[in-house]
Amino acid sequence: MPIHDDTLSYNAAQSPSDRLICDALSSAIARHLPKADNKIWHRHPVWFLDGNPIVGYSKLKDCIRLLFWSGQSFTEPGLTPEGSFKAAEVRYVSVDQVKASELKRWLAQSAKIQWDYKNIVKRKGKLERLT
Questions:
Q1: What is the structure's pLDDT at 42?
Q2: Per-domain residue ranges for the chain?
Q3: Could you confirm whether domain 5-112 is CATH 3.20.20.80?
Q4: Which residue, among 78, 68, 74, has the nearest Cα to 48 in the 3D structure?
Q5: Three-state SS at 47
């Protein structure tokens, strides 16, 4: 699916160096997750498979954070656990840090390994593995 106009606007609103990172991330995500739906969710670009959040990024004070909702279950190294559920992240301060091969592997894992965040409220905070 194409990158949503709202995501393109989000990227364009960033500083020049952060915009390069956001553009690189959104292009790679759209290329490697062509069946994912993209929208702004909680004010940040996020991609979903069957309504389940998979990957997104956001501007933090000093970096762009790429977050994989099920990233703690990936077998590929390089991500740092984030929060109390199954999410993991990587932070970028320069587009040179975005490694295409690494990102491709993480995105492949994100399509295969999913925890059901879509129904987390219905299950009262309990996550179940989907794939």
A1: 94
A2: 5-112
A3: no
A4: 68
A5: strand
